[in-house]
Design goal:
five-stranded parallel beta sheet, Rossmann fold, eight-stranded mixed beta sheet, GATase1-like, 20% helix, disordered N terminus, Immunoglobulin-like, 12 helices, alpha/beta, 5 domains, single chain
């Protein structure tokens, strides 16, 4: 800011009339000498003019100015990228020295603010600066201690770098490095969210070299759970490459990809990334056979048709072959019941067979029923929903299918005909199929009633639902490689109609069908793990009591450790434990493998700051335009050291070699002034004598 020139006033030594008279006589004498062509006239005229100026006594006035109290910001970047190398140490040393210097400067208050950053938002220094400058009365400048990687750099000079009068204050950038750095990162360009089991996922990745030229040779590696690495591709930085990952099982598949390091790069933290690929089955195929038209068939059909992952084949048997009925077959079905195709040729293509109210009265020959039993033993899923037909002669339990059924119904007194509310058994409270079913809802504290069920005289497997008297309602069992379930009532459809509030029929049937189709999240025996707050938490679910439950943990570098899992009081059938992740100077991988008995799982370190880790260089590139516009300086702390903090004039430079400056803001007092001679007396006297001497010298020639 330019202040106005001092004011000029005249304070003559002689009275004004006398001074004007002397000036007039001098003019007359000068004209006379000019007419006479007198020598030395110009020199004498100059001496007279200077003498008259001396007698007029010009004075300049100086207004009194006062330095205002000033505020400056010391902004310290504490984002996660500042943990790279020696950045934090350089920043802390600069902070302490600048605060000490600020205390020694008169009238200056140096306010420090710490900017944590991270949490998925990156580093946002200018948001913090904008908030802090609102409370400053007279901002003089901003000292920014950072690595230069900010994610909210404004396109133009922000208002926080200007005073209320519009004057720009300097932004000084103090960088925690010796100079511009380089960094290598591995990016996932595209990856499918879901991959069908048995197929290959095609992943597009690219390695970027930041701060240096692209096209350098680089290897893409995969870390195994034994600590070894496998080269997946040879490529060049800046070029996309496809990686093929086979998916062998349902659920989450974790793969860690790593780019070979770049010489001299700032950090290896973003050289690796973890792929999370979800393995899913191809369309699940379900065969639903309804023995007779009934309300339950509609419930099953609505549920399975609403699931986009299910292909449903549904047949309803309108009458048995020996039914005395004159109705033509063409009026009973559009196509004949394809028994041979379904139960002989394509039975193994189904993931689940549901027999709802199915009564085997000369409908399927013995060989087809044997095929169903064989299908279950080889890994298929079978659900039998039973009603009164199960108490009649020639039911499924009297066929080869009965060998895989988990319950038997006697022909006499096999029906329970009274209202009851289904309840979970002790085992049902911990089994994944029924564990988390809602107990409170429109039905109140108890599910709506059913009015009919089957009484069993023999059961095996696991009973999850029962009547209040203890009669089984839902029984699950395994037969060799397959799974089978029996729902011993055909009235679950009452819940869908809201009978006295209804019940969670849709969720129960969804879980039951998916358990039969071996969906991983519904397994009775599960091993799960997750990482939180620097610890690995392990949960082992088992319906059987585990003795000496120990889990083996394999770290990314291949080292092994053991942890004992203990039962939890909150949930029956759950064992849990946790272990701290040891800090490592150089992270060799991100995936941990956990084994417990025959089960295993993997867990990966999360990326809490993906935006922060995109570029881990220390660089002045992003902030240089703003620094230059504000008149500030750029200091590399690792090379130049901590600069000296100065208070400088508003019109001068704000930085120099080894120092940075804060402009002094001054205000003018309204009345007080000081006067000083405009021209020094000694200088005027020397000028007069010199001119007079020259004029005498000219006259004497």
């Amino acid at each position: 800011m330019m202040f106005p020139l001092p004011s000029l006033i005249w304070m003559p030594v002689l009275p004004l009339w006398l001074l004007l008279t002397v000036a007039g006589l001098s003019i007359i004498m000068g004209l006379y000498g000019l007419i006479r062509h007198a020598r030395g006239l110009l020199w004498r005229a100059g001496a007279i003019i200077i003498g008259l100026l001396w007698l007029a006594n010009p004075q300049q006035t100086h207004p009194h100015k006062q330095i205002q109290p000033q505020d400056a910001l010391l902004v310290v970047d504490l984002s996660p990228s500042m943990e790279v190398g020696t950045r934090r140490a350089l920043i802390e040393r600069a902070r302490s020295q600048l605060l000490a210097q600020g205390q020694a400067l008169h009238g200056l208050t140096l306010h420090q603010i710490d900017v944590a950053g991270g949490n998925g938002q990156g580093t946002r220094l200018f948001e913090a600066i904008d908030r802090a400058t609102l409370t400053l009365n007279n901002p003089a400048g901003i000292l920014l201690l950072t690595d230069g990687m900010d994610h909210d750099v404004p396109a133009q000079l922000p208002s926080s770098l200007k005073t209320i009068t519009g004057q720009t204050i300097p932004l000084h950038l103090l960088l925690a490095a010796k100079g511009e750095e380089t960094d290598r990162r591995l990016r996932i360009l595209s990856a499918p969210p879901y991959v069908i089991i048995g197929q290959t996922a095609h992943i597009s990745v690219q390695v970027d070299d930041l701060g240096t030229m692209a096209g350098q040779a680089v290897d893409i590696l995969e870390h195994g759970d034994d600590g070894r690495t496998t080269v997946l591709a040879h490529t060049q930085s800046g070029q996309a490459v496809d990686i093929a990952i086979p998916i062998t099982h349902a659920g989450l598949t974790l793969k860690e990809l790593t780019a070979s390091p770049l010489a001299g790069e700032a950090s290896l933290r973003n050289n690796s990334t973890v792929l999370r690929l979800q393995g899913v089955r191809d369309r699940l195929r379900v065969l639903l056979v309804s023995g007779v038209p009934n309300q339950g068939a509609r419930v099953w059909r609505s549920l399975l048709k609403a699931d986009p992952s299910v292909d449903l084949v549904h047949f309803t048997i309108l009458r048995s072959p020996d039914t005395a009925d004159d109705t033509p077959l063409s009026d009973l079905a559009l196509i004949p019941f394809p028994t041979h195709e379904l139960f002989s040729q394509k039975i193994n293509s189904f993931d689940l067979i549901i027999l709802d109210g199915f009564s085997n009265q000369n409908i399927l020959p013995e060989s087809y029923l044997e095929n169903i039993a064989h299908y279950v033993r080889q890994g298929g899923g079978l659900l039998v929903v039973g009603g009164p037909e199960m108490t009649q002669a020639g039911t499924l339990q009297d066929t080869p299918v009965g060998a895989v059924l988990p319950a038997h119904i006697p022909s006499e007194n096999g029906l329970i005909l009274q209202p009851f509310s289904p309840k979970r058994t002790a085992l049902g409270l911990s089994h994944p199929v029924t564990r988390a079913l809602p107990t409170h809802g429109p039905w109140g504290d108890a599910w709506g009633p059913w009015y009919r069920a089957l009484r069993t005289d023999q059961t095996q497997g696991r009973t999850l639902l029962a009547t209040p008297s203890g009669a089984p309602l839902l029984v699950l069992d395994q037969s060799d490689k397959g799974r089978v379930a029996m729902l011993l009532s055909d009235q679950i459809w009452l819940w869908s109609r809201g009978e006295k509030g209804g019940g969670p029929q849709a969720e129960l049937l969804r879980r039951l069908s998916h358990w039969l189709m071996k969906e991983p999240e519904l397994e009775e025996n599960q091993l799960e793990a997750h990482i939180s707050q620097g610890r690995i938490f392990i949960q082992r679910t088992s319906l059987d009591v585990l003795h000496n439950a120990q889990a083996e943990i394999i770290s990314p570098d291949g080292s092994h450790s053991l942890i004992t899992l203990t039962p939890t009081a909150e949930q029956s059938g759950l064992w849990a434990g946790s272990i701290a992740i040891p800090p490592t100077a150089k992270q060799t991988g991100q995936i941990w493998t956990i084994h417990q008995g025959a089960l295993n799982t993997t867990v990966a370190l999360t990326e809490p700051n993906p935006l922060e880790d995109q570029d881990l260089r220390s660089t002045a590139t992003l902030l240089t335009p703003l620094v230059r516009q504000s008149g500030g300086g750029i200091i590399w702390l690792g090379r130049e050291g901590v600069p000296t903090l100065r208070q400088v004039a508003e019109t001068g430079p704000f930085h120099g070699s080894g120092w940075v400056g804060l402009p002094l803001h001054q205000i003018q007092l309204s009345t007080e002034t000081t006067t000083t001679p405009y021209l020094p007396s000694w200088l005027l006297l020397v000028a007069i004598l010199t001119l007079v001497g020259i004029s005498w010298w000219r006259e004497g020639r």
